[in-house]
Amino acid sequence: MERAIILAASAIGAGLAMIAGIGPGIGQGFAAGKAAEAVGRQPEAKGSIMSTMFVGCAVAESTGIYSLVIAIILLFINPLIKLL
Amino acid sequence: MDVSINGPRIYFTIPILGGIDITETIINSFIVIILVAVICKILTHKMEKVPRKTTQKIAEIIVKTIDNLVVSTMGKNNIGFTPYILTLFCASIFGSLISLVGLRSVTADINTTLTWALMTFFLIHGFGVRKKGISYFKGFIQPYALLLPLNLISEIATPISLTFRHFGNIVSGMIISTLVYAGLASASAAIFNIGIPFLQAGIPAVLSLYFDLFAGAMQAFIFCMLTMVFVSNAASEE
């Protein structure tokens, strides 16, 4: 019985953790918009602008990856069952 | 549907020092080492002062690119970083790209990325101490002494975020590929009623273009860029 509750709670927790996926979506979309604006303003610098945008996007993605790692750990490794 | 997403398989255990596990990661790391060594040997075979062979020109282009990257990020006097940055980049990109031939990515194991992130951590503080002496540690009390716990936490967060960014991107690609393969296998069994999964040929290749090639190359580049930026920040704060 307790095992069922822990498994259900892990699943719900994994789902709630992935709400953090909103953050990188908004942040990287904003960065891409600013990059498009910059390319429109100076089309010669397109290569450098794109590299900067990619670096910024990869750093902004890290909090989304943290929540994904928590969700994966909860779903596939079930650490809380060992605490029963 | 039988999907199994596990950690790296342990092949055998050496029974000294409490048992050292020889896992898939270690075997694949040695394969990456041999691959990079063979490529370097081919590219630098019979070098001349004025290059005539194409392989030497390719080698010089690679070294020049990384030299320019290091100089533009860290300043002209830090050009000695190029061998380490190029090694890290090769280890990371080949470690992620061997999943294209069926082996498990070396960087899909958190031990690998944690090791590289800890090396960056020690490089940051080592170069800070070398540049500024023991007064490097006074930088943690700037601008207010009350900010010391926050500064310490942000220093510890640096290797943790480096580790999880690289590990999370590669592992999530691996998990999504596994799930897509399993889903296509059950879809072929449902549509065609034969045990041969026809639908597994072709569709996962498009996904692997993003998850293996693009994410692997991006994460290698980002890891190197962040290492360079952090080290140059710590060694040159005025």
User: What is the H/E string of chain B?
Assistant: EEHHHHHH
Helical/strand content category of chain B: mainly alpha
Element order of chain A: H for helix, E for strand: HHHH
pLDDT averaged residue by residue of chain A: 91
What can you tell me about this protein's structure?
The complex is a heterodimer of chains A (84) and B (238). With 84 residues, chain A is mainly α. Chain A is built from four helices and no strands. Chain B has a two-stranded antiparallel sheet. In chain B, β1 and β2 (20-23) form a beta hairpin. Chain B starts with 9 loop residues before the first strand and ends with a helix.
Question: Keywords, please?
Answer:
heterodimer; A: 84 residues; mainly alpha; rod-shaped; B: 238 residues; 2 strands; globular
Concise account of the structure shown:
The complex is a heterodimer of chains A (84) and B (238). Chain A is mostly helical and 84 residues long.
Describe the protein's topology.
The complex is a heterodimer of chains A (about 80) and B (about 240).
Chain A: H1 2-17, H2 22-41, H3 46-60, H4 62-76
Chain B: E1 10-14, E2 20-23, H1 24-43, H2 54-74, H3 82-97, H4 110-132, H5 148-192, H6 203-235
Antiparallel strand pairs in B: 1-2
